[in-house]
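lol so apparently i was supposed to do this last week
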Amino acid sequence: MSTLLQLNTSLFSTQGQSSQLADRFVAAWQAKHVDGRVVSRDLAGHPIPHLDAERFLSFIAKPEERSPAQQAVADFSDTLIAELKNADVLVIGLPMYNFGIPSTLKAYFDHIARAGVTFRYTEKGPVGLLEGKKAYIFATRGGLYAGTAKDSQTVYVRDFLNFIGISDVEFIYAEGLNLGEASKAAALAGAQERLAQIA
Ligand SMILES: Cc1cc2nc3c(=O)[nH]c(=O)nc-3n(C[C@H](O)[C@H](O)[C@H](O)COP(=O)(O)O)c2cc1C
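anyway here it is w/ flavin mononucleotide bound
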């Protein structure tokens, strides 16, 4: 049985363009994987706290030396990591906000990057520990960036996922959503066509 983990990160939760594309993909995936399991997180509706020193120190403290509060923080991170570890497919709805990823997704990444758990350092450099997964990223933008140096989002998300071992990452773009109705309609139609092909 396949498991899919969906992370929607739009400020507008289910109303976001990225969420709607991701939801559409997940519905198509479910239709093809009738016994598949879907786990969803809405990072706008249920935000993950920013990583601060207290939380980071909770991650790296020895389990037997953690205070109850530190243990709760570590348990929360462990839950997020277990969800990801159990998933065969990762789907992220990824709007561009102010040239970057939503801060809620950064907070999520900060809670799943754990040395010795999702990656480890070796003499040859870091090795990701979450292997054998496929990631689909539904990237929505008001302007046009894909394939240009201004698209720092794609490089960053791909690099982060590669770092933790997720090397099979496909981006599906809907760009130019704020460049008029014709541009928006064409971009959404293109993304929908692509998602129907790959679901
Ligand atoms: C706060 C905010 C910041 C944005 N910043 C950018 C940006 O830097 N570049 C861009 O092309 N579009 C930008 N946009 C437009 C969004 O990328 C676009 O509307 C996209 O569809 C948002 O996805 P969503 O509907 O899933 O939230 C921004 C939108 C918002 C609300």
